[in-house]
Amino acid sequence: MGFKKFRADVSTAAQKVASGAISGVLSVTNGDSDGNVVIKYHHDSLTRDIHIQVLAQDVSEYPDGNSFLLWTDDPDPPPPVEAAVKVAQDCLSGLSVYEMVAVFAGRLEKEIVRDVGGEDDSLDEYDDEDENDDYDAAYDADYPSDGDEFGLPSSTFRSFHQRAKPVDTPKPLLQRIRRDLRQIKQAGYKVGFLDSFGRTAATGIVSISVRVDKLALSDEAMEAWDVKFPDYVVLLIRFAKKYDPLERVIAQAASHTEVTFRIGKCNKYKPSLHQALGAFAESTHALALDNSETKHADVAHFEKLFISNSLESFLNESFISLLKIRENSHLDWEGANEYFLTRTGFCTEADQPPQPPAPGQASQTSDLAADGHDILGRDHLLEEGPANERSLPLVAMQFAMRYFVKCTEYCLRCHRRLEKGFEALRPYVCSDPLCLFQYMAMGFGPAVEHEILTEPYVVDLLVSLCYTAIQPFRGYGYGVAPQTETKLPIRSLPVGLRLRVPDLLSVTATPLNAKVTADKSRLVFDGEGGQGFVDHLAPARWLAFRTPSESGVFHARVREVNIAMKTAAIDVMGKSAATWAMIQQLPGTAGPALDAMYGPYPGVVQPHPTPAEMGIADVYPYDAEFDSMDDTSKGIAMRHVLDTLPSILEIGDWLSSHPHSTLRSMERISPAAASLLRWIVSSNRSCIFQVDRSRLVTQPAQKGSETPAGGSKGQNTRCQGLSGVAGKGRNREHERILGMDGWIQFRFAQGSPDKELRFNRALQEVAARKPIHKNPTIFAWHGSNIANWHSIVRTGLDFQDIRCGRAYGHGVYFSPHSSTSISYSSGGQHAWPNSDLNITSCLSLNEIINASDEFVARTPHFVVSQLDWHQCRYLFVQAHGRVTHNGTGNKSTNKGSDHQAGRALKKETFYPQAPGLEIYGQSGKPLQIPLSAIPFRTIGPAAGTTSLSPTKRAVHQLEDSDGEEDAEDVSILLTDDEHDAIDGPPTKKSASPASSMDMAMTQDVGGARPPTPANINIYRAMTDFEPGSLDLSSLLRLAPPSFATEAATKSLSRELVRLQTLQSRMSLHELGWYMDFDSISNLYQWIVQLHSFNPSLPLAQDMKKAGTTSVVLEVRFGGGYPFAPPFVRVVRPRFLPFMEGGGGHVTAGGAMCMELLTSSGWSPVSSMESVLLQVRMAMCSLEPKPARLDRRVMAGRKKDYGVAEAIEAFERAVRSHGWAVPQDLRVTANGV
């Protein structure tokens, strides 16, 4: 019945309630989102009326397949209301709205009677099951078998309303739920309780998460996937009926396991209940309810990942079935998916995998484990132990994280492994046309609207590259036989999208004949050639037409069709060209040779139409199947469609003025153009971001140009002179490379998410045997014909095709001179006419491992055959008649501004280049590469550390951080006196959390290396800090305080273990802080050194001038820790006070001015790792002013901050901001 039935029932319930049908209920109204209902309840014993929020979780299945969730927004609800909400929660499945209100009102009435002292024998009408029974008692009526061996689709489905009468959750089942969730905690993930699930109920939602920095993703992958280190990847699991343990799920039919998944990212380890409910709501508007909250960083905000739709579909459609197949057939996830697709008919006979191996045969080793992912690589299904001790939520989380981290290796629709080839930063689909169609139709790809609004020049670039790649090409090179066959440079075409385009080329196509009015607003079909036009034209459909008297093809949208008058009212939306340039590439020359010019419609366009032909048009509806055309015809059709597409900036302006709209809502864009644009953006598997954001405007087409000029509605005829910023993406102006005037710059990266890690490993391997520590890498250009770049950004820099010969060996060709690469980058193709960039050539700037003696060749070009030895960093695009980054259109001005900017930058902000191997710009002078543009991991590897990898480092941290979790969540996991060791491996248990902590304190957390000093993998190019250089005797050391408490001591001991482990496993410059753990004699006083600040920061520059390499912090803890914040202050050097122009959140007395360190901002779940990180970030902040050192320090007159002045300055700052001063501040700060 669904949503219409639900809305009607809400109206019916409201009318009945208004007539007094249900005692105590004043009103029932629609909420703010679809499926949301608000109940207003009154009782004389309550001090105020109560508002109960109700959410229908499955509106499309209402009423039988739906269940309701209840909560109240009241910050302090009366106890009877809380009790009624919890108890009634399990009794609201399969009910109508009115029945739901009646059941809840009855339960609330009983709770109120009980609360005021009365007794009601009927209160236990739902308590039909003894809580001491084993949890299996909840499943006495087992589901009948439907013959579904592996949970494949079946028509048998037991809906919610067919279940037995709801019962209270038996205690053994709650204990099983908590035990299963404890295993998730022990595996290194975080568990968040959102509603009553796991507390008092076996139905509801649970959150499982892992922080992004634990996933070993490269910086490029995180940017491409729009996630950040502090974010959490969160899996929400909703159990619509009583929780099924893993062994029961495997035993019963898949359709009987009623579990739903959502996956996204969150700034906290768990979202709020409201956000979680919104994620499961049918309408996307539900997530908009918390818009006011999301403006505050302290509020949990759950949002979709770029891959959420694909993963959620996979989890909800296939996970349970794949789980059953794995258990019964002993396959790994990949093999189970192949088997499942075969059984469901997805695979063809030729694609069918072999039958499952015999029981007992070992499964394949997890590739995540093989890659060094100690925790992500675990497979809970393969762990030894009784079957009834395995956790279903843990298996689901491991499954989700596997396909998230490895998403670029699998098809986003069928999830089969992609063929080996280009390793992408962005995931895509396989070569099956059905997968491509479903990928686009079901919205699994990136939101092209978001891409246009944030990175419009990137979208313009992709469209422009595609446009040049669909023009015929005939090339030859040195040592290569001339190609006589004309072909398109593009390697893959959008087959499978089911595009409908006008068939303007085929000689078998019969156009409709019509007369067109002078203003081109109406077509009249009054002749024989117009017969049957009704079958092809309808309002909102598109058509193309051309007349003998005019060049080009007009594209129009049908506004109205009058069958009686045989007319069609149209709006001309664009015009496409009628000629094509075929390019013959001449290698090593400055430009192309135009081999031929031909019209795509030979014999049709007549130079002198007869009078009888004036006003006659050939009409081609958009109804030809794109997939059935030959490649050349496909290219021509794509070009005509793209000619109608407005400029990307214009589309962005329209989207900005029409929030929540899509491309298909814009009348000027045909369905074919919208699908083609979405394919162009979605199929890009590289990571490209704008450096230039000045808003550029295309110049009007010059006379004689083949580019269609204005005259038609919607044609791009904007004038020059507009200014502003293009896109809402991140500002990367600091990453601009000076000295390349007239070139627009993009950050450019390719390869799989671990490509950067492999590059770093290769770098370390070479550094272990070659003296390259001072200059470990070099930079070089790569140029290629502009028609090749569409394929390059999708398949990478390889040597698959031979276009210009390989006179110097097999490999990728690079040059340190831009002029050399430019000669290979020119193209003679027509540019996309509506481009705001008007691209004429492209170059990439690449970072290469400095081992030129191992190159295939080094003169006159670098020829590199090792694909892991080079990384793309920039893409340079030359825009014809175009401006550079300031948008003035004056090259001399740009040159001057670049020169002035170069003088303003300090030498240390640039990457040091190897003498004799510098990279040269178009002026013939060496270019300076911003240090901020180069990942830290690729710089200055230390010899003898080849075993250290960023992958292992990042994954090891999974074990370190659990301090951010809500204390209540942890306490729930430890309920029932089952004290499993939360921090230990899954197979270990201890008597209590305290004993596990004490045991950890006795272990050598550093492994084979001593834990202090830090891991001496010091990248000398990144830091001048020396561990152990601080004279601790110059600092005041306190004796253990008299106010020490057992709780604080245990918490601090645990924090020290985590930090010690973290420091022993991370590179010094990446960590950014250092502690001498061996010197700690008082748990309540820590000395921490912050170091390795970005050299471009004013603070780092002042420190260098002052001859100091670290900022010394003192952290003092009180007896109330972790419920009271620590006191953090700078000891030395002294900072410039705020009143004198300083910043960095350091007060005049040296204390840190941060709400986090006050009673109003502190949370007991805050870890000291996060505190140190946030203190460091505050010092690095440039807002409102950058941190600077006191001038006395600069002059060599050093004086440490005192504790008394720090306390006074902290109290003044806290009160001025309206924050709460910690109650025991002075006791904590004085350490006595």
TrEMBL record:
Residues 699-731 are annotated as: Disordered. SUPFAM superfamilies: ADP-ribosylation (SSF56399), UBC-like (SSF54495). Residues 1047-1216 form the UBC core domain. InterPro entries: ARTD_PARP, Poly(ADP-ribose)pol_cat_dom, UBC, UBQ-conjugating_enzyme/RWD. Pfam families: PARP, UQ_con. GO terms for molecular function: NAD+ poly-ADP-ribosyltransferase activity; nucleotidyltransferase activity. Keywords: Glycosyltransferase, NAD, Nucleotidyltransferase, Transferase. PROSITE patterns: UBC_2. This is UBC core domain-containing protein.
